[in-house]
Amino acid sequence: MMKIIYYLTMTRSRKMIVQMYGKSFYVQFKKRSDSWFKRVFKETPDIGESIFSFNYAYAPSYVAWYKAMMESGMNQKQADELMWHLNEKMLLTVPKPLLHMVGKIYLNGFRKKAKQHMLRQESGKLHPFDWEIEYRDINENEFMINIRKCGFIAYAEKFDAKGILPGICAVDYIVAYYMKNGFYRTKTLGYGDDCCDCRYALNGSCSLRPEKGQK
Q1: What is the pLDDT of residue 142?
Q2: Cα three-residue angle 181-186-190, rounded to 5 degrees
């Protein structure tokens, strides 16, 4: 899955990157990114059957892209913006008419497995790169997750790539917007807060970019 995410996103993003930065930039960026991905992928451990396994599958790509961006002379704002577009391109691999159905299936699956994840968490059986959460049902349509530990932060520290945060935290808004799910958050670990206080709705709406007061 990690290789599929990386190479599919690079392929789908080629035209966009060329239009934004030029062909020579893309060629050098791809060369650097491919090199970093191969290196990082080899050093990426399996975190087991976590409910965050799909999220974690993006980690090597995020680090590879970020490292290549920095080596290409980008500043943090430019890196965050390109990371945004890369994630958007990957998500829209799924046809838009199917995205809401995919989103509901994913969130329903998450709800069913959340309590089991918390039991593993309490028993100390989570991988160091896994997520630690508090889960609460609100109603049939909504639930909350307070993320106390983010696997992306631990992973980024391993590869000296903490600059991927908080930029990649915005991915939650991209996903919710296109999948027509509700999503709201006022605190984010990537910004230095004590948790990510995430509220999800199977049926709802979400801004593509975080609104004032949201992170």
Answers
A1: 97
A2: 100
How far is residue 145's CA from residue 109's CA, in Å, rounded to a whole number? 14
Q: Say what the pTM is.
A: 0.96
CB 156 within 8 A of CB 164: yes
How many C-beta atoms lie closer than 10 Å to residue 185's C-beta?
A: 21
- Nearest CA-CA partner of 179 in 88, 45, 57, 51: 88
Instruction: Tokens for 106, please give them.
Output: 């994913």
- Token readout for 103 is 């989103």
Helix (H) or strand (E) holding 109: helix 96-122
| C-alpha–C-alpha distance, residues 56 and 39, integer Å | 17
Residues 165, 200: Cα–Cα separation, whole Å: 21
pLDDT of residue 214: 87
Mean pLDDT of successive 10-residue segments in the chain (215 residues)? Answer: 97 97 97 98 96 97 98 96 96 93 94 94 95 97 97 97 96 96 96 97 93 83
CB atoms within 10 A of CB 209: 11
Residue identified by tokens 């049939």 is: 140
